[in-house]
Specification:
Elements: H1 5-17, E1 23-24, E2 33-35, E3 38-46, E4 52-60, E5 66-74, E6 83-90, E7 95-103, H2 109-117, H3 131-134, E8 142-144, H4 150-170, H5 181-191, H6 196-204, H7 208-219
Antiparallel strand pairs: 1-3, 2-3, 3-4, 4-5, 5-6, 6-7, 7-8
Helix pairs in contact: 1-4
């Protein structure tokens, strides 16, 4: 039986280091918890290549036997590049949910690369997407459950690193003269309709009011200017 945490925790550390060269933004103190048996950590960056990149790590391994990573990167509003998303929810011996997408915003070679690349992978347990998710994610989205084999775990980690490297290298090269602000707002609006995210965080002990504000300010902020 494999230990999932021994693989995904170092994976998250490797991913976070990839953002060292970008500008790190300060977050409110209430968006950070670090106590003996639970931590909730958030990282936010910006650069000329993308407008915001957010990584969230929830570590409740000791008491709740759960570990979560969420990552989302938004291009600049005038960039037709897709929105990058990657999420893992896991116990010690099984990933209960893994989700990854280059969610399309406009016509983009980056998305075309992703769509073609994801055809190279097979999964034992694919997940059906709820209605809110069908509004924003691509048909090539990775949505799987019950990952408990070394083969699929290694495959998932490889996808995370390879696709992130490709995305960060190629993002920010669009010459589009308009704006995709409405597309970004559309993405955030439907992401916030996911009932499982606030429910899980409340169960883990994060104040419900604080997390609702966090969703609007950091996790999936809409821009109404």
């Amino acid at each position: 039986m494999i230990n999932i945490w021994d693989k995904v925790v170092p994976l998250s550390e490797t991913i976070i280091r990839k953002f060292d060269k970008y500008e790190k933004l300060e977050l409110k103190n209430e968006y950070h918890i670090d106590v003996d048996n639970f931590s909730w950590k958030n990282y936010l960056w910006t650069s000329d290549k993308f407008r915001r990149a957010h990584i969230e790590i929830v570590d409740a391994r000791e008491e709740k036997k759960i570990w979560v990573m969420h990552m989302c990167i938004f291009p600049n509003y005038n960039d037709s590049s897709p929105i990058f998303g990657f999420d893992i929810v896991c116990g010690k011996n099984k990933i209960t949910g893994a989700f990854h997408d280059f969610s399309p915003v406009g016509n983009s070679d980056i998305f075309n690369w992703y769509a073609n690349n994801m055809n190279n992978y097979e999964w034992e347990n694919k997940r059906q997407l709820p209605e809110w998710a069908l509004q924003i994610f691509s048909k090539q989205m990775l949505a799987v459950s019950n990952i408990n084999s070394e083969k699929e775990l290694n495959q998932l980690c490889k996808i995370a690193i390879d696709n992130l490297d490709y995305y960060l290298y190629n993002i920010g090269n669009s010459n589009y003269q308009g704006t995709f602000l409405d597309k970004h707002n559309h993405y955030c609006k439907f992401q916030k309709q996911n009932p499982h995210t606030p429910a899980m965080m409340k169960t883990l002990g994060v104040d419900e009011v604080i997390f609702r504000t966090f969703m609007n300010e950091i996790l999936f902020p809409e821009n109404n200017e």
